[in-house]
Amino acid sequence: MQAAHRFFVSFMFLILIAAAPADATEFYVAPSGDDAASGTFAAPWKTPHKAAQQASAGDTVYLRGGTYPIYEAEAPVVFANSGSDSSTPITLKGYQSETAILSGMLDRSDTAQWTLYHNNIYYTEGLYGCDFDGDIPIVVQDDAALQQKSGLSSLSAAGQTYFDRGSGRLYVWAKGGGNPGLYRMEIGQSGRLIEFFPNNQFIVIENLTLRGGYYGIRCVPGGGNRTFRKLVLRHFRNDAIKFNTTGNHDDLIENCSFSSYGDYGIDSFGSSNQTFRRNDFTGIHSWKGGGGIKTMAGANNILIEGNYIHDLGGLGWSGALELRESQHIRVVNNLIARVQGPGINIYGNNATISTPVEDPTSRYITIANNTIYHAKLPAVWLSPASANITLGNNIIYQLSSDSTNLRVDLGGETGFWSDYNLFYRPSGYPVRWLSANCTLLRYQQKNLVDTHTLCKDPRFASISTGNLHLLGTSPAIDIGTLLLAPSLDFDQVARPQGAGVDLGAFEYNP
Predict the structure, then answer these.
(1) Could you give the C-alpha distances from 446 to 292, 387, 418, 430, 431, in angstroms and in order?
(2) Domain regions of the chain by residue span
């Protein structure tokens, strides 16, 4: 018996050895390192790009604390290899609790580098802007983005910039006035900080800060199996993470923080089988329109779960969640609060896509157990070219000055099912159905949907402090349907906690 036991243990040990990645290595990078060194802890490399070129399946690259500049528009971090599978990825991550920053920002906090042009307007030279469209690079003063203007004559107030691509001059009217070099003045000089190609499969990026540039991370068509986790992404001219055109697949973005960007935190263009969960999005540039997550142009089978999208600002024509030309999307446990545009916008529009999809209709989208508070435009908006939308277990609270809780335009009613929601708007109609404003009762009688839906104050814990958990007296407790509810809520509390499922993103848990 003992011999058999020893044989079994030895056999299992050999299996584990065989399953372990061969020659898996730990590499290290530090701002004080040398790319000619060996890449060990004692002799680290200097640049993340060097490490990304060297790492192979199973390897982990640790970035020590400090800033890694990525200025040139054609020099992002690019991986030469791929992981083998999900158990042997290539991993690039910050070392322990140290803060490693990939920065596309050029520091111009020096009065000698600025020349007075006129009144409070100064310029600096030797810049090339972003490499993508010749537009103005992102300019940051004291960690706040300045407003980009399209011409020098439009530069009319403090906190504005204009970039002349022909001369390479950047004109700035600093907030507070005077020479911009008196402030912490940084200028985005990178097209993208990290770029993925189709051969870059099974790669993990974790615990890093990315700041400054046109994009933070760009994934060109055809790649997949990437994980982006615990990233801080800030100060981008356009999208923080861009899945470009078609074919990206099986990606996971979780526990990341997005702020100060110009379009979307995550733009999933023509991608499939992706999960975006427990991310925080805030701070669209005030002169732009955008949101938290956008799926479009044939995006398919996307899970959007447990994200907090809030205080976006911006011009407000885009949804906090923009779901267009997309199918089989599941939107659950998200918290959307204080946004200028729609909360969730669903539609299709081939006319605005450079490569139109065969059928632009957004369909088979489930929206369940979300809380939406104070979206200036309709909180949930089904425009033409949307169909088979399911809406259940949600709390939608609109101020009287906001638009409706639910708007369904002609075409959006096809296959529409909605029930077990709470719509609250202190005054004004909660629903706009096919161009007609409706009370909840009129909407229910006319369409025979939302028969269990309420129009009552959900009684949030503290609106003034942004606490949108439920009070114990909330009418939203125990009245939802288990058929749509995720097993865990926004806080990872099990559902149900009481006699039934609660509406919204939070299960009441005294």
Answers:
(1) 34, 19, 13, 14, 12
(2) 21-102, 105-188, 303-470
| Distance from C-alpha of 207 to C-alpha of 228, rounded to nearest angstrom | 9
pTM over 0.90: yes
CA distance 319 to 346: 9
**Mean model confidence pLDDT for the chain:** 93
Burial class of residue 436, CB neighbours in 10 A (0-12, 13-18, 19+): exposed
List Cα–Cα distances, 292 to 106, 256, 289, in angstroms: 27, 12, 11
Strands 431-433 and 417-419: unpaired
* Structure token digits, residue 181: 């070099």
C-alpha 43/C-alpha 388 separation (Å) is 58
Q: How many residues does the chain have?
A: 510
One-letter amino acid for residue 138 of the chain: I
Cross-strand bridge partners of residue 266:
241, 293
3-class secondary-structure state, position 70: coil
Residues 92/102, Cβ–Cβ less than 8 Å: no
pLDDT in tens, 120-133: 999 999 887 766 55
- My answer on whether omega of the bond before 458 falls inside 30° of 0, hence cis, is no
Is it the case that residue 2 has pLDDT exceeding 60?
Answer: no
DSSP count for the chain of H helices, then E strands: 3, 46
Reported as type and span, the H/E element at residue 3 is helix 2-19
pLDDT score at 131: 60
Where does 239-384 show beta strands of DSSP type E? Answer: 241-243, 252-254, 257-261, 264-269, 272-277, 280-284, 291-296, 299-305, 308-310, 321-324, 326-332, 335-339, 344-347, 362-368, 371-375, 380-382
Give 282: exposed, middle or buried? Use CB within 10 Å, 0-12, 13-18, 19+.
buried
pLDDT digit string (tens) for 186-220? 999 898 999 999 999 999 999 999 999 999 999 99
The C-alpha atoms of residue 393 and residue 486 are separated, in whole angstroms, by 10
- Indicate if the alpha-carbon torsion angle 373, 408, 393, 229 is positive or negative: negative
Structural tokens at position 253? 């973005």
Where residue 155 falls (left for φ over 0; alpha for ψ -120 to 50; beta otherwise) is beta
Asked if pLDDT for residue 12 goes beyond 70, the answer is no
- The H or E element containing residue 217 is strand 215-219
3-state secondary structure 135-153: CCCCEEECCEECEECCCHH
DSSP reduced 3-state for 51:
helix
Nearest to 212 by CA among 129, 328, 315, 317: 129
Is the distance from CB of 64 to CB of 95 less than 8 angstroms?
A: yes
